[in-house]
Amino acid sequence: MTNVFEADAQLRHAARELSEAFVAIKTDKDSRYRPGGYRPVWQAAIHLSERLADVGNGSPLEPDVAVQEAATGLLQHPVFIGGVHKSGTTLLRNLMDSHSKLLVIPTDGFGVGMLQKLCRSTDTERARKKVLTAFLVASAVAHPYSADPNWLLSGKPGDVQPYLQFARYFCFWTSRFDDDAFGLLATIVCAFLSLQNLESARQKRYWVEKSTFNVFMVDSLLSEYPRAKFVQIVRHPAAIICSQKRKQVLKGRRLNLIKELETIYSGMALALENRDKLGVEKYHVLKYEDLVAQTDSTMTMLTDWLQIEFDEILTKPTVNGHLSDANTAHPELGFQSGTVSKASSAHWRHELTEDEVALIQCYMSPVLEKLGYEGGHGGFAAYLRSAHRLSNQYGADPHIKKIGTIQGVASWLRRAKV
Question: pTM of the entire structure?
């Protein structure tokens, strides 16, 4: 491994280039929020990852036979985490990350839904390289609005060896699976398991993948993985709206409130539908509010459902074993890495207007109470009153105005039957 790295001058240069980009953005932290400020990091990460992919293709690495057997058996036992954006899927994944019985894929964007889009848009060889490159980039570079960039696979700035090893394992495993989205996902899982030592690899009972798309792809995932289990996390829609509203302000945009509510509603309705269809033994629904307020008991219920032992490590969020950021959009409050913020579930009560809260609760009332939340009061009349007052706040937003039309009435009545 070391000889491959030392012999490739381009690889050494690319690793140094990314390390220098990391140092620069850590020195000037405000630059990540300026337009194009994070671009040097992304460009350096892409350059390094493309070179790693080229080297991997030239020298695939075969894992130990016992690791190959462990990987083949593990593939049949996935746990898919899902939920709408900002509902807590990342926190749940990070809490599960360090358990000895779980192989948790540490990156976002590699669910079957995204991989299917990639397979449709490019040829097989190019798709493989794109997936490998994207995985390496995602595991090297933190989100620009989160903590400092880091090297997830190694934990040491500039240590490119685990990335080179993953690339070579990935290129070995590509020959074992079909050239489709499921084959690419299997390749990622097996290459990631190959990074583990033999004892650790043999302990794994499940592999865990998190994607918001998973709740919308249950039938497709079950057709490929009949033994799959699903965990969906739900969160009070007002908290999600509050988070999305803050995010759009940072981007200089205005939130499309009704479109956001439609997405949240469909996700929460699926929590009920999928659980009823598959049964609680295959489809587990938990609330974000319970996860942050009662982390120990909520994670204990999850491990009981998975039939694995509870471990205190399940209360400390990590990413590939490294402490992760606290689950808050308010870093100024000083929450430590590797902790769960309880404050993040209540900010919406102070940041949203009464009319926004009323509209959200009326819109979502058919599913809120069934998932253990307080529903809206006043029915459709209260819904219309809130929408009318909000039309001024949102600049006569056509999506808000639509509520009072025949289409809006029909939509509300359909939801009321859920």
Answer: 0.85
